[in-house]
């Protein structure tokens, strides 16, 4: 039988999915697009409090190649995004997702690009960092980049960029309601690790063993604060200590 042998990428993805279900990244929810397909993941991103994206509910797909982790996945927003590093079609342009070839034209060092030690967790942290701190050096959306720089350099007096993001955040509320999702708006809520509900469509066939501890998910939100590492400290940025390209510029 052709699929007796499980590709190593499938094993790697199964382990990563299990790890992200058991120890989620704050502000993210991961599910499979279809329960039988490990190569297509759906991501829900909650906009971090105290940023322009606060209260937003943004959906994206991660698509993995058959030779993962030797080649990077693609990360595409399904929600309309106005951002210097996101293309019109939703594709995210970020160094960590570029193959590790030496390309002096790009201004990126090979060490900044994809390598097999990276994983979904590092991608998610890079994406959330990018939302807060766009890279205007080689923008995917030039107009958004110009507008962002005006907003940043005027210290918020030029409001055009902020207004567009605010409108996009408001437009995601209908999506959140349709999906029955409560979007966190305080740092304390945001820092609670969001376990995927046990009835989620991405589970039953292959991954029953991944979902053992999901039963008490949403009702247990208050208790989970004690369990999560970064979530225990509500005084600061709950993803700040894991991602060093944080907030020093703004």
TrEMBL record:
Disordered, as annotated region: 198-250
Gene3D superfamilies, per the entry: Ubiquitin Conjugating Enzyme
Highest taxon of the lineage: Eukaryota
Signal peptide: none
Pfam families for the chain: UQ_con
E.C. designation(s): 2.3.2.23
GO molecular function, one term: ubiquitin conjugating enzyme activity
Cross-referenced SUPFAM superfamilies: UBC-like (SSF54495)
Protein name: E2 ubiquitin-conjugating enzyme
Source organism (scientific name): Electrophorus voltai
């Amino acid at each position: 039988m052709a699929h007796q042998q499980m590709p190593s990428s499938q094993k790697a993805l199964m382990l990563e999915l299990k790890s992200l279900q058991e120890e989620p990244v704050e502000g993210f929810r991961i599910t499979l697009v279809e329960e039988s397909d490990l190569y297509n993941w759906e991501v829900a991103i909650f906009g971090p409090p105290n940023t322009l994206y606060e209260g937003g509910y943004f959906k994206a797909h991660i698509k993995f190649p058959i030779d993962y982790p030797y080649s990077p996945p693609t990360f595409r927003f399904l929600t309309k995004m106005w951002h210097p590093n996101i293309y019109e079609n939703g594709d995210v342009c970020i160094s960590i997702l570029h193959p590790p070839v030496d390309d002096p034209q790009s201004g990126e060092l090979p060490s900044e690009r994809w390598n097999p030690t990276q994983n979904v967790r590092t991608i998610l942290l890079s994406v959330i960092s990018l939302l807060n701190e766009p890279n205007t050096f080689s923008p995917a959306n030039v107009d958004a980049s110009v507008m962002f720089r005006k907003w940043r350099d005027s210290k918020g007096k030029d409001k055009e960029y902020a207004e567009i993001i605010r409108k996009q955040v408001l437009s995601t509320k209908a999506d959140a309601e349709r999906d029955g999702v409560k979007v966190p708006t305080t740092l304390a809520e945001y820092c609670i690790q969001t376990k995927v509900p046990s009835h989620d469509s991405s589970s039953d066939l292959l991954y029953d063993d991944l979902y053992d501890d999901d039963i008490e998910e949403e009702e247990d939100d208050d208790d989970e604060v004690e369990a999560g590492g970064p979530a225990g400290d509500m005084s600061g940025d709950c993803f700040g200590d894991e991602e060093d390209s944080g907030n020093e510029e703004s």
